[in-house]
TrEMBL record:
<feature type="region of interest" description="Disordered">
    <location>
        <begin position="187"/>
        <end position="212"/>
    </location>
</feature>
<feature type="domain" description="Peripheral subunit-binding (PSBD)">
    <location>
        <begin position="146"/>
        <end position="183"/>
    </location>
</feature>
<keyword id="KW-0012">Acyltransferase</keyword>
<dbReference type="InterPro" id="IPR001078">
    <property type="entry name" value="2-oxoacid_DH_actylTfrase"/>
</dbReference>
<dbReference type="GO" id="GO:0016407">
    <property type="term" value="F:acetyltransferase activity"/>
</dbReference>
<protein>
    <recommendedName>
        <fullName>Dihydrolipoamide acetyltransferase component of pyruvate dehydrogenase complex</fullName>
        <ecNumber>2.3.1.-</ecNumber>
    </recommendedName>
</protein>
<dbReference type="GO" id="GO:0031405">
    <property type="term" value="F:lipoic acid binding"/>
</dbReference>
<dbReference type="Pfam" id="PF00198">
    <property type="entry name" value="2-oxoacid_dh"/>
</dbReference>
<dbReference type="InterPro" id="IPR000089">
    <property type="entry name" value="Biotin_lipoyl"/>
</dbReference>
<dbReference type="InterPro" id="IPR050743">
    <property type="entry name" value="2-oxoacid_DH_E2_comp"/>
</dbReference>
<feature type="compositionally biased region" description="Low complexity">
    <location>
        <begin position="194"/>
        <end position="211"/>
    </location>
</feature>
<comment type="similarity">
    <text>Belongs to the 2-oxoacid dehydrogenase family.</text>
</comment>
<dbReference type="Pfam" id="PF02817">
    <property type="entry name" value="E3_binding"/>
</dbReference>
<dbReference type="Pfam" id="PF00364">
    <property type="entry name" value="Biotin_lipoyl"/>
</dbReference>
<keyword id="KW-0450">Lipoyl</keyword>
<dbReference type="InterPro" id="IPR011053">
    <property type="entry name" value="Single_hybrid_motif"/>
</dbReference>
<dbReference type="InterPro" id="IPR023213">
    <property type="entry name" value="CAT-like_dom_sf"/>
</dbReference>
Amino acid sequence: MAQVLEFKLPDLGEGLTEAEIVRWLVQVGDVVAVDQPVVEVETAKASVEVPCPYGGVVTARYGEEGTELPVGAPLLTVAVGEPEAEPEGGSGNVLVGYGTSEAPGRRRRVRPAPAGGARVNGAAPASAANALAVPPAAASGGPVPVISPLVRRLAREGGLDLRALAGSGPDGLILRADVERALRAAPERDGGRTAEAPAAVAPAPGATEARVPGPAEVRVPLKGIRGAVADKLSRSRREIPDATCWVDADATELMRARTAMNAAGGPKISLLALLARVCTAALARFPELNSSVDTEAREIVQHPYVHLGFAAQTDRGLVVPVVRDAHARGAESLTAEFARLTEAARTGTLTPGELTGGTFTLNNYGVFGVDGSTPIVNHPEAAMLGVGRIVPKPWVHEGELAVRQVVQLSLTFDHRVCDGGTAGGFLRYVADCVEQPAVLLRTL
């Protein structure tokens, strides 16, 4: 006899507690295999596909596209075969880098359809999901089942009575999509009543005519990756007393060295990889900048490794992938890892582990065509090196005026971890390596 297993949104790790449904990959009635991706969700870290640990027939889906669900909320139910055909513990495989998912500690059967509203394959008909009716909680005077406080606030701000709304979630749970659908329907109902009103009376002579309304405001929700960036930058500004120093450097020799490396054959070396190699060498000399502040313990924590973050602009917003153990990598390895993480950032497939744990950030804002910047430190790190565009400029070289490839370097640092002398020494060493790449030979 078949049994119905409930698959819940798995623990996302890295402190993430909710995700937004971007796209369903299966329909009710579809047959799914073990570990087949069933839904694409977006968290504050990345957009990923979530596989289901059960194989069978999808009997119900919970949540429409655009709905935010907390960890542990039901995603779908699957009817599987005999108990021996599928272990209760699920597949046990890793779910998109978020850890393993355990099966719920209970089994449940598909409940019979309520009178007056038959269910098809365990899912409520579309007409029932969209109807406005009094849910059981409202009739009994009990609390209205709502998925999150955010949904309550959304309804309150829109003047919507939740007791007049039928939820499309499990057991009548009111989802964000239900509230948004009801709010969209409200102007249509109001418009119907307005159409019956008498025509407007022409203004009296001499009266001021009504002003034509201008364009409506555009409101963009601070959620997903954009919301996570906003929260992190705001926290950095609140907690970190930062300062910035900068210097111009002659990058002509660094560019020549890169050209010579790539002319020798083998994988091409990127400029970002060379700058990263300079960063790791500088951090070995000035470890104070490869640290973080434990505010509760009032301690500065110096890290024995360099997990190097780098800023990457994507269609979903700014993300900072992290190259693990950058201090132990050569130029070729750094080039390959930068390319892999950049492609994953553009396709939205970075895992939370690839977006967290950085100890220092390299920000190449020169790709945007700007010379300088005072970036915000990537909390909880202690410093960020900024690199502007490399452009030909007049420069005094060996006592004579010449056209050289010049770059502006900036260092924004947490003034709690070091003073200006340390920060200036770090930046000067970076500039020396850019101007004379042979200086790096000391660290090889």
